């Protein structure tokens, strides 16, 4: 990439010394990455799982560097306009940092990055407030997947259960969750006990930038002010 203007002083919001030092460290790390890597990708994520993302990041650490966190800090690091950008044209990336987004600096070929992001998908248990992807209903009768020790816990989750000769028995049909409705804390716990995973952690490419061009992968209504040339 062209010579960076990373040594320009940056004014961050007033914070305690430790917080300010942490932000400044992120700013410097992003500016170092802008010099070291050939391209930068903006990506969005859904159902973030920190451990899974750490594994994905470790897989690419020899060729790439990822940053997530405060969009504002990342924008300041890159520059929000042509007047304060650290590298000509890179302020266009800042305009795309909104919502659940991150940036990936990399030396990998475009095709390889696209393949890695498009193929990445990890399933996990849904959390409270997530939308149920299907209706789950338990029928009246013996619940062989649960041991007798779990009966008190199941009752606390609102399930109409009892012990019958040492077996957990559902005394009436019970709807755990409805498709398209948010999960309650109790529903999320029951789904975990049932081993039903409704959350999918995905990464979506939004744009690719290098000194020659900005390529948008996903057009959003508020991206109309982003120049690609």
Outline the structure in words:
The protein is an alpha+beta fold and 229 residues long. The chain is built from seven helices and eleven strands. The strands form three sheets. Strands 1, 2, 3, 4, 10 and 11 form a six-stranded antiparallel sheet that branches. A hairpin with a 2-residue loop joins strand 7 (161-164) and strand 8. Helix 1 crosses helix 3 (71-78). The chain is elongated. The model has no long low-confidence stretch (mean pLDDT 89). Associates with the pre-60S ribosomal particle.
Cα-atom Rg, whole angstroms?
24 Å
Q: Let me know the average pLDDT.
A: 89
Q: Categorize the overall geometry.
A: elongated
The tally of strands reads 11
Return the string of H and E elements.
HEHEHHEHEEEHEEEHEE
Structure annotation, total helices: 7
Low-confidence stretches: none
Beta content comes to 15-25%
Subunit structure: Associates with the pre-60S ribosomal particle.
Protein name: Ribosome assembly factor mrt4
Keywords: Cytoplasm, Nucleus, Ribosome biogenesis
Subcellular location: Cytoplasm; Nucleus, Nucleolus
